Amino acid sequence: MAEDKTEEEINELAADPDACKKLIQDRITGQAHSKMKNTVNDIEAKYEAILKLEKSVEELLELF
Question: Could you list the residue range(s) of the whole structural domain that residue 40 is in?
Fold first, then answer.
């Protein structure tokens, strides 16, 4: 968290608990958003695979 902050910014955060709390919440929200986005992408990929499987099963049934 502090790797992208200057010493002055860190001191300002230390002096302002509300700003520090907001920064932490923003970081957590950003991480949660990223995880949620990855999960949605995984779900979409699985859904596409299911559609492909369904189409293959339909084609197989047409053969019989």
Answer: 2-63
